[in-house]
């Protein structure tokens, strides 16, 4: 009897282990160095005195803001939850998380092809389409006239978030959660749903952080594979 059912038991055990493993959260930042990431900063191409704007300081990943560029994962990802904790340490400014990133310097010879989740103070949760596209409800109200939409220079690439006021005062830590599943992207800031896009023109890619003029500290960049999107309020990340 045991010999007959042991293969079934083994298969069930393997399925359970694989399912648990698939949901395991890992950190994309090890707290010590930038292993697993690479830098793309145009200023560093021909200026030997240009400094890398991405550093590790006091166990945090820091974007110094200048010179402008991106810190990009070496690996390509799809179907995941990204849990980021960040703050503008000194003064409000601009930064962003780019999902489904691919071709470098596809826009303005600076920004990689991607969908940006905005972190700019006061506008966290906006989408910016960078030679890719995504749809949201009430598209014209949040993006402008349809004839002007696009992902390239001179087009309306910005899709406004659902609500302002989700961010904390400068110096305090913000929690941004981004879920990417197939052609959908969903964003929360400090527990408030800020954006939900669908019909994205891309479903996988690298993840990138920006240096875009302001110093930003990151103390958490956690990655979890997912099989479905969280409903409003379902996901409450642990501190």
Describe the structure.
This protein has 239 residues and is mainly beta. It has a single domain, classed as Exo-inulinase, domain 1 (Jelly Rolls), CATH 2.60.120.560. Helix content is 13%, strand content 34%. It has three helices and 15 strands. Strands 1, 3, 4, 6, 11, 12, 13 and 15 form an eight-stranded antiparallel sheet that branches. A seven-stranded antiparallel sheet has the order 2-5-14-7-8-9-10. A hairpin with an 8-residue loop joins strand 8 and strand 9. The chain is globular and about 45 Å long. The N and C termini lie far apart (48 Å). The N terminus is likely disordered.
Task: For this entry, give a set of tags.
Jelly Rolls; eight-stranded antiparallel beta sheet; globular; mainly beta; single chain; seven-stranded antiparallel beta sheet; 3 helices; 239 residues
Write the layout of secondary structure elements.
Elements: H1 2-22, E1 26-27, E2 37-40, H2 43-46, E3 54-57, E4 60-63, E5 69-73, E6 80-88, E7 96-101, E8 114-118, E9 127-130, H3 139-143, E10 158-159, E11 174-181, E12 184-189, E13 192-197, E14 206-211, E15 216-225
Antiparallel strand pairs: 1-15, 2-5, 3-4, 4-15, 5-14, 6-11, 6-15, 7-8, 7-14, 8-9, 9-10, 11-12, 12-13
């Amino acid at each position: 009897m045991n010999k007959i059912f042991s293969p079934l038991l083994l298969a069930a055990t393997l399925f359970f282990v694989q399912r648990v493993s698939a949901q395991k959260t890992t950190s994309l930042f090890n707290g010590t160095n930038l292993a697993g990431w690479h830098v793309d900063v145009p200023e560093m191409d021909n200026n030997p005195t240009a400094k890398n704007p991405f550093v590790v300081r006091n166990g945090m990943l820091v974007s110094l803001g200048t010179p402008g560029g991106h810190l990009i994962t070496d690996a390509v990802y799809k179907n995941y939850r990204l849990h980021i904790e960040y703050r503008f340490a000194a003064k409000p400014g601009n930064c962003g998380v780019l999902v489904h990133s691919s071709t470098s310097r596809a826009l303005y010879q600076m920004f990689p092809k991607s969908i940006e989740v905005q972190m700019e103070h006061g506008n966290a949760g906006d989408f910016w389409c960078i030679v890719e596209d995504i749809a949201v409800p009430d598209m014209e109200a949040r993006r402008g006239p349809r004839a002007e939409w696009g992902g390239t220079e001179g087009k309306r690439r910005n899709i406004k978030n659902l609500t302002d006021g989700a961010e904390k005062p400068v110096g305090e830590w913000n929690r941004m959660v981004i879920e990417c599943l197939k052609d959908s992207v969903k964003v929360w800031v400090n527990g408030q749903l800020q954006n939900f896009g669908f019909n994205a023109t891309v479903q996988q890619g690298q993840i990138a952080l920006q240096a875009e003029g302001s110093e930003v500290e990151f103390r958490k960049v956690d990655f979890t594979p997912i099989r479905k999107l969280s409903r409003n309020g379902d996901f409450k990340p642990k501190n």
